[in-house]
Specification:
Layout: H1 6-28, E1 40-47, E2 52-58, E3 64-65, E4 71-72, E5 75-79, E6 94-101, E7 107-117, E8 125-133, E9 139-148, E10 154-162, E11 168-172
Antiparallel strand pairs: 1-6, 1-8, 2-3, 2-7, 4-5, 5-6, 7-10, 8-9, 10-11
Length: about 180
Amino acid sequence: MRWRPLPAFAAIDFLSCLLVVFVAVALTSRPPQVKTYGAYAVVITWPKGHNDVDLFVRDPEGAVSYFAKAQADQMQLEHDDRGTSATGYTHSHQNEERTVLRSASSGEWIANILLYARKQGSAPIPVVVALWDLRSSDRLVYRDTRRLTHTGDERTAFRFTIDHAGNVSGIAHPTVSLASKSYPG
């Protein structure tokens, strides 16, 4: 009797290739995530270009994190994107700034955006503002778009309340200025 191992090895090779394809598809089909450590993250994005949009976040005690004070109490501005190729993420099609809240202190938090420098065009700049919960798996809590029109235009992106359990219990939009108290100009 003659031994024929070829069909068995071909089947194993085929199944191995199928497994590799399945894993590759599973890894690329994950939902978007903010890759950072902390309790929450406030993220803003706007179209690639030479416009400088800044993110300001105020904690319940009144500390403000922004470009001139990246580390404020339990907050950290991870990236100040000034709308230039030197400050943007290399392979991104948009500009981005992110402030991470290292702990979820209870109280009201405020996130504002400011058009610090407008360098091109006359159309309003759409800025996507988002709040991410980072405590277990990254989960988008809130997302909206604000439009900035001129240099110095400041908008309250959103206010959110964190309860004593560390959960977001409400999103609101009353306006308050954070930039004018943080830097001259």
